[in-house]
Amino acid sequence: MEDAIITLRKQKSEIISELWHGKEVTEQLIRTYDHHLHESETHQFLASKILSSFEKTLAMLSGGFMVGYPTQPTTTSLLDQDCMEQCSKKRKSSSLRWSEQVWVCPGRVERPPVAVDGHSWRKYGQKQILGSKFPRGYYRCTHRDSQGCLATKQLQQSDNDPAIFLVNYRGTHTCSHLEPIMISVEEPRDRKSDHHQQQEEIERGKVFEEIDYYKLLKNTGEDLEDIFPSFNFLESDYVTVSRMNNLEGGQSFQSDLNQIISTPADFVTNPSIGDLDFSNIDAYFCK
DNA sequence: CGAATTTGACCACT
DNA sequence: AGTGGTCAAATTCG
Ligand SMILES: [Zn+2]
Question: Molecular function terms in GO for this entry (predicted)?
Fold first, then answer.
């Protein structure tokens, strides 16, 4: 019951984020149209962005709800059958996968946004991937040994836009998720002591350094984590750029590179637009 | 000292 | 043989 409300709230926020992104791009389009009347290429590109954004919103509204939820599949769709076939062939990772894209606020540290999703992760590997400039980091849930939580995720900085981090999640959290970040965030105004306050300020600074300066681009459209409702005031910091539910697909990183919506094309070939866009984002999010 | 990260080795799969 | 993913010893961190 509560889960349903939570998932609805989450979906609503994601839909709003997606629509918001559509609005952003539309503003870009209008601005470009005013300045350069005859640049059909740019217009077409931005229009495709808008189209993609609304398509994702529609997908969230229609089918995105039940896809990949870690319960027993009562209904057998085509995707389920394919998944079952492949799972019967090889009993490997039946864990579901999805991906996110984290947009790092420009001018901030290039430290990978690991704890931005509210879970505590533990790095267990790092690998250079062919054709990729930046290495890929492998993280697993901190409570793996203590509670047997098998959730993992991979984090890789995008080659095209270093401000974007591609995240691949594999498996859902089975651990009892007490969130140190949430506690630290909710806490800060209760106590006021002399020299402790400074330390608390520092601690708060650490927390917000991790969360505030990063923009998470959630694209799951899923209700896989019940954490974000407590993050309501941070929900606006996260913008949905794209959404991918990979029930079995292997390389989400490369496919993402092809399907990324905010590709560096408009930013590199048209820096003025990029500057305007970033200033807008800063005005809305960075404070 | 325990916990988290680093980093080369190892392993499974083409 | 090469690549992506994981392990684990060494090292750093708190
Ligand atoms: Zn977990």
Answer: DNA-binding transcription factor activity; transcription cis-regulatory region binding
Please report, for chain A, the start and end positions of each structural domain, with discontinuous segments joined by +: 1-62, 99-170
Q: Report protein residues in contact with nucleic acid strand B, where contact means CB under 7 Å.
A: A 90, 92, 114, 120-127, 142
A231-254: pLDDT as tens digits: 322 333 434 344 455 545 444 565
The separation, in Å, between residue A246 CA and nucleotide C14 C1' comes to: 38
The predicted model scores a pTM of 0.53
Contact, A125 CB vs strand C, < 7 Å: yes
Q: A114 CA, B13 C1': separation in Å?
A: 29
Pick one of 3.10.180.10, 2.60.40.1840, 3.30.460.10, 2.20.25.80 as the CATH number of A99-170: 2.20.25.80
A129 touches strand C (CB under 7 A): yes
Q: Which of the 4-43 residues on chain A come under 7 Å of nucleic strand C at their beta carbon?
A: none
pLDDT digits (tens, 9 = 90+) for A263-282: 333 333 333 333 333 333 33
